[in-house]
Amino acid sequence: MSSSSRREFLSDSFFLAALTAASVAVPSGAFARAPISKSSADKLRIGVIGLNGRGKAHVDGYLSNPNAEVVAICDIDLRTAEKAAAAVATKTGKKPKVFQDLRKLYEDKEIDAVSAALPIHWHSLAGIWAMQAGKDAYIEKPVSHNVSEGRRLSDAMTRYNKICQTGTQSRSHKAIKDAIAYIHSGKIGKVEVSRGLCYKPRKSIGMIPDSVAPTDVDYDIWLGPAPKRAFNANRYLYNWHWHWDYGAGDLGNQGIHQMDIARWALGKTTLPNKVHTVGGRFGYSDQGETPNTVVSTFDYGDQTLVFEVRGLDTPQYTGVAIGNIVYGTEGYVVFSSNYALALAFDKAGNEVKKFSGGGDHFGNFVMAVRTRSLSDLSAPINEGHLSSALCHLGNISYRLGEPAVPAKEMTGLLSSNKHGAEAVVRYREHLKANGVDTANAMGRLGRVINIDPKKEGIVGDAEASTMLTRPYRSGFAVPAKI
């Protein structure tokens, strides 16, 4: 058994055992709260926007906080909004205001902050409009639909002197913060590669014809910045993730959480020098546009970030299916989707350190709004912008690629970078294991994207540069300049 194989085997065994043990009891507090309010007038008055999915967790997070009050609910589906408002009333004895149009919510001077869980194509605009209206904002991940609007969202926080939190909740968990600090202190030596994993099986969404939008749904507002087109149930609710007009595939869905940890572990505060992706939508034919299987390699010069998405059945890698492995010259650290636990190993695969402890990301946002201190914020919007931009750049490389077939060897970073090349070997093996005819189809071999990290621009590729932003529908344009 090679040293690397032995390391993976040992890590798998130790990590799974530690996960089992850690599930018994996990500390919950990650930071001290601001003093508890003595009256409802002292509470942060929050409007939650988007209630069909993640927004329900937003509501629960604020209802459990003595320093916050959910005073408004907004959803383009009035039935969903009314149901959520009724649930709040049952728990608190006071029904929040109900809005269908977020612009009307922003006009309400009694609302201090908004917490938005919307389709990705709405994230940046919702945040910018909120701060322009004088409100602080919690914006779900990824914080943007493209690289440029993420920068504009980040600039808005500075321009309007507001608090803006990114919805990557691992940033508030003690275990993750302590493990990152351990890496940054040099305990695993010089970090060479940071790997992100999103092994999350996704089923076919099938084929559904266009139809009329459901009653009580304002479909025009739902489309927002995206192009006008007929309603389709496969481009609505959760399945919008798999369409380029609204989503970013699993790189920008589940993957953004692990992408953020991967970049955070490297300590990088800029975009990389180059990006290269290979991938495809394998195993079925449906209306989805985004790839369900991806390898993206990000070149930072002295360090590499490699990200893997697998939407077909696959075994765990290094003990995790969704997580990160950060390799240094003297050891490595493993993260899983359980943000309350991380493990450090030496080069021989022996566990040397365990990190545990949970956190309250919504509570962190409330505290930072009350203190007005950015240093109290676990995930300021610029961190969300940088990590989201990596997902978008990986997708740009993929979308500008050409058919990848065995007759054409991998080129660019996917062949010249040893970490990317190794991931591609396993990519091929994974496809074969799922019955994909790799003799005739390997997906798309992306274009190598060269980046100017300081300007956050693409070098020498006009076509790719146009994909740093998008055309916006009239009335829903992200401001060109903040």
Notes on the structure:
This protein is α/β, with parallel strands linked by helices. The protein folds into two domains: 3-23 and 174-357 and 380-468, Dihydrodipicolinate Reductase, domain 2; 40-170, Rossmann fold, CATH 3.40.50. Helices cover 33% and strands 19% of the residues. It has helices at 3-22, 55-63, 78-92, 102-107, 120-132, 147-159, 174-184, 219-223, 255-266, 361-371, 381-399, 413-416, 418-433, 462-465; strands at residues 44-49, 68-74, 97-99, 113-116, 136-139, 164-166, 191-199, 274-280, 293-299, 304-310, 322-328, 331-335, 341-346, 351-356, 402-403, 444-445, 449-452, 457-458. Strand 13 (341-346) and strand 14 form a beta hairpin. The longest helix is centred in the N-terminal third of the chain and has 20 residues, at 3-22. It is globular, with a radius of gyration of 22 Å.
